[in-house]
Design goal:
homodimer; alpha/beta; six-stranded mixed β-sheet; four-stranded mixed β-sheet; 8 helices; 14 strands
Chain lengths: ~260, ~260
């Protein structure tokens, strides 16, 4: 299934109307994930790397710990259905509900201020001696931003790349940032790629959710073209994650744990 | 509470390191909504217009139909808690879970293809004779994009404006697009502003979720600076919603129901 869809649009420019111009739209695709025959969530995503997305989603939601937990995977791309069977069938349904899981699982009581809120997320600091040079960061960001024809044609996708200190290992794209990161994570699990010495390169903004997903896999370095939010910086500092933002041209901002950045 | 947070960053430019440079981060704030003493969701948002956000969120999630359904609202900004009491205490908890509600409420069975998926969202077409002129669209987009000092300083927020055919009525900003739209909707409910003849102007992309929120309030016109996704165009066509994208300079693309656009 293509990543874009053709569409007729009416263009207006300087008051002149041009009807029926061909344009490409980024394809947004509903993937319903059934876990052990129960519906878990419907992800709105780009229709590629759907197994990686499913595995990554299950992992970052805490429903599996490795791809070995999955005994069968069946994808019906036309119907938009991924059926997953896991070894352990007793995964509690209450802790699902997609992007909201981390927040929903917070105990149901008042949380007093930001520090307690961050405590409640229940993540461990990342221990990693991995480092990366600024030259590589500039290179990898350029490659990442240049990767997607869909982005160039439609402006509608995010790219997330995985790299080590020397080279880019993979790039995944999706209409949603968090899905692109889940694809990286899922593919890494399927290929048994060790993530504790890697970095991820994001084409989009860094919100708390992106740091949380990285933290669950103990990815030590997160690099973004764009701005991080206050909570993402606070959580990165607390979890010993290196956070670099606004990587543009030959400039970058180091927001947290710069000791992993060499130049 | 300010919309930005000061932060020390280490800047690297052309290999030169400048430590401890003051930068502004967009503030991301966790707001936990308790409905009739039960926790409903934690929204990550910008800390302003939190009552509008709460009311809009409850409305677009289908938990209230107007602000008159709310008998008390109490906000503890420091703790990040909004407590809402509604007249009807029997709102089913199962249909909560924030952004996922529309997708989760889809019947738990196979959905065969995109058309059936869109059917399952269960929205009615919008009937509205409202129109807007392209000159106004260009003006309103300029004002909307110029509105936010936070955006200019941090690049980290989205703005959503409400307008009629003649003037801008309000602009709300948030770290998340869907929250900014919920703020517009919540404020409109609180002020009894009729939405069926209005347009919303978005600084960000248009995904299915944004069309769904507008559809629930029967907002007939959606205008975006950026790209729509394939599903958002398909749903806008089906629900008789006018969708305009890529409004830049003196150009725009009309993706659906252009009969409401005059020029």
């Amino acid at each position: 299934m293509g990543k874009t869809v053709e569409c007729k649009v009416c263009k207006i420019e300087e008051g002149i109307e041009k009807p029926d111009v061909d344009e490409l739209l980024v394809r947004e695709y509903p993937l319903s994930i059934f876990l052990n025959e129960k519906k878990l969530a419907t992800l709105l995503c780009s229709p590629e790397n759907l197994k990686a997305l499913t595995v990554g989603f299950l992992r970052t939601e805490g429903l599996i710990s490795s791809s070995a937990d999955i005994v069968s995977f069946n994808l019906n791309e036309e119907k938009g259905i991924a059926e997953v069977e896991t070894k352990n069938k007793d995964i509690a349904r209450e802790s699902f509900f997609s992007k909201k899981i981390d927040l929903e699982s917070i105990k149901e009581q008042a949380i007093d201020g930001i520090e307690n809120f961050l405590d409640s997320l229940n993540c461990e600091p990342v221990e990693s001696s991995s480092e990366i040079h600024t030259d590589k960061i500039f290179d990898f960001m350029r490659i990442n931003l240049d990767y997607s024809d869909v982005f160039k044609n439609t402006g509608g996708v995010h790219c997330v790349a995985l790299c080590d200190s020397k080279q880019m290992l993979a790039v995944y794209e999706d209409v949603a940032r968090h899905n692109a990161l889940d694809k990286v994570i899922g593919e890494s699990l399927m290929k048994n790629i060790f993530l504790k010495d890697k970095a991820v390169i994001l084409s989009g903004r860094v919100s708390l959710e992106m740091i949380l997903k990285a933290a669950k896999l103990e990815i030590p370095i997160i690099i973004s073209k764009s701005a991080p939010t206050s909570l993402s910086v606070a959580l990165a500092k607390r979890l010993n994650i290196t956070l670099v933002g606004f990587v543009r041209g030959n400039k970058m901002n180091i927001y947290a744990n710069g000791y992993r950045i060499k130049h």
